[in-house]
Amino acid sequence: MKRFFIVLVVMAVAFSACSSDNGNDDPFRTVEYTYIFNQGNYTEQNGEISVYEEDAHTTINRVFHQVNGYELASTIMDVTAIKTGLGYLLCANPDKLVPVAMIGLGALSQGVTNGIDNPRSMAASMQSLCVANAGKDFTVDEYYNYTYTNGSLSVYDVQTTEFISNVHIGNNVQGVAVDNEQKAYVTHDGGVTMVDLYGMKIIDTYKDEVYTGAPKQIIYLPQNNSLAISYPYQGIVLVEPGTFRCLNRFNGPVDYDGILYVSNDNELYTISTEYNSDYTVKSSKVYNVSQRTGDYTVIYSGHHISGFAVIPFTGHFIVAESNDFTTNSSILILDESGEIIDTQASGIGAFKFLFCSYITQ
Fold it and tell me: Alpha-carbon torsion 296, 299, 300, 304, what sign?
């Protein structure tokens, strides 16, 4: 039950952005920052944002409160942004979608609640913002496995966050990705469902011919127009958007969370944590996954890794260590060889980080 709780509700995301010189004496002037979005504790509604400046080796915490004058008062489940400078915080407990300006992190509204129903993840194109909802209806079997039975995809106008429509998907909805052709892809117990965002209808559902069980996470790789799909304890599948034609299959150490990350230069990464029988951590590693050979190469081996990203400005790696969930997470900065060059504390009781990057143009 404890493992399910951690996987289900605890996530955080980090963004990287260039700040502009606004002439004011505030934390957002002239230098390049990494924004760290901390999920916080699910029951305490203390999700927050930290700002890390690599050149100065400093971190500013509780930035959302400093900028906006009030607490977010929710749990951050996912974050995404588009190149026009709009960002979005997907929150749970209470469920809401909060638009923010990526320069300065000012909230643009108190949050949209229509269509947000026990959310898991989101993805955006330049037209649509898509939210994958697990729903609140569930069943529990004799082994205390939860099945959320009313999963859906909610779609919003990416500029205004106006709710457009909702499409029923199925059981245990998890991940979502959007391609360049206005199609969304949602992972759930039945496979990966493709949704036409123009007509708001289901087109097809992909079920892998080799990997069994439910897929977990999915991301779009724009540079080679493919979708990467994680299957816990089995590997990663690359498929072609629109057709679901299998392009490649990489057997390897993908864990229960199935975390996937793609850098700005199209490198694919995953995190794998193994546990002993008493749920203590046996090993925890970040892997680079070659899209050419399928090889999994260890980038960093830690105690209990809860997030990873590549900082676009420097190419350095940023890793979150959970510290056994007893204190705030440690943020480690690694150079290209994997050597630790900086350590920071971040998060408010944060359990898990999912990192991704964003750069203003």
Answer: negative
CB-based contact 169:193 (threshold 8 Å): yes
Of the candidates 101, 41, 110, the residue with the CA atom closest to the CA atom of residue 69? 110
192-232 pLDDT per residue, tens: 999 999 999 999 999 999 999 999 999 999 999 999 999 99
Q: Looking up tokens 């994680």, which residue turns up?
A: 230
List the structure tokens of 78: 């996912």
Between CA 120 and CA 13 the distance in angstroms is 13
Task: Supply the DSSP string of 182-223, one letter for each residue.
Answer: SEEEEEETTEEEEEETTTTEEEEEE--SS--S----EEEETT
DSSP conformation class of 323: G
**Neighbour tally for 30: CB within 10 Å:** 10
pLDDT digits (tens, 9 = 90+) for 45-66: 888 888 888 888 988 888 999 9
What Å distances lie between residue 273 and 40, 79, 300, CA to CA? 21, 23, 12
Residue 151, number of CB atoms within 10 A of its CB: 27
Specify whether the CB–CB gap between 206 and 213 falls below 8 A.
Answer: no
CB atoms within 10 A of CB 76: 25
Q: How far apart are CA 308 and CA 55, in angstroms?
A: 19
Residue 302 CA: distances (Å) to CA of 99, 218, 255: 34, 25, 15
The distance of Cα 342 from the centroid of its chain, to the nearest Å, equals 23
Q: What is the C-alpha separation between 118 and 134, in angstroms, rounded? A: 6
Tell me the one-letter amino acid at 74: S
pTM for this entry: 0.88
Euclidean distance between CA atoms 183 and 198, whole angstroms: 8
Which residues of the chain are under the pLDDT cut of 70? 1-31, 323-327, 347-361
Q: Which of these, 226, 229, 230, 228, lies nearest to 242 by C-alpha position?
A: 226
